[in-house]
Amino acid sequence: xxxxxxxxxxxxxxxxxxxxxxxxxxxxxxxxxxxxxxxxxxxxxxxxxxxxxxxxxxxxxxxxxxxxxxxxxxxxxxxxxxxxxxxxxxxxxxxxxxxxxxxxxxxxxxxxxxxxxxxxxxxxxxxxxxxxxxxxxxxxxxxxxxxxxxxxxxxxxxxxxxxxxxxxxxxxxxxxxxxxxxxxxxxxxxxxxxxxxxxxxxxxxxxxxxxxxxxxxxxxxxxxxxxxxxxxxxxxxxxxxxxxxxxxxxxxxxxxxxxxxxxxxxxxxxxxxxxxxxxxxxxxxxx
Length: 287
Hints:
Blueprint: E1 2-3, H1 16-22, H2 26-43, H3 45-48, H4 52-70, H5 77-86, H6 90-112, H7 119-140, H8 146-166, H9 168-173, H10 181-186, H11 191-195, H12 205-228, H13 232-237, H14 239-255, H15 261-264, E2 267-268, H16 271-283
Antiparallel strand pairs: 1-2
Helix pairs in contact: 1-14, 2-5, 2-7, 4-6, 6-7, 7-8, 8-12, 8-14, 12-14, 14-16
């Protein structure tokens, strides 16, 4: 594993999303890329805009933009790309715009919600952000069944948990503690011990890391099983989601063994390892 490096392009070469997009059917790759770029555009606002009021204003603008999109009047280049690349019927288009609204609201909540009281409230935000993004990706890939959409949302929640684990220290330093308060209390770890880690961590830290790692792995496995329960055609179409799951499964296994390093830097798999995982998924070696 290596520490991540900021980039200006998205998805950047060597990221898990880059390889996931490369795994999409050629005919849907452009539409899925537009969806991913829109998702990134709104998801980065809470993290890149330091003033909560300004961040919310930017996100509220997107609420208005999405209403305009639903009426066929997009103004932002990313919105126009979504409209151009969809090729949806009215029902699918309506469902996609609804998922966009869910994601924007999830990001608005994130602007103001830096602590979580319990697992239920955190999971609700995971579902509203990455969960809705994965469900939207399923629509973009031409899959509409309720089972597939539910499986995709499970996968999105699982990837969000893995992502938040990888960013645990980084997000804590920025003011977000993506660990429920009752979970911290159960392991006798204080929020400030995550945001300002010391050489000697509290005795409960290994147990907390094990809990978060196991939780993410379990969620990823449940998402994988839900995808495997779909029809063969749906599974093939959703190969990009399966690539993301397997990359994050491998990542979580390594995060579980990272100890205190996790709190000092964000750790990700090397591009070569992610490429190899994606290849094995495409070849059917990983299911």
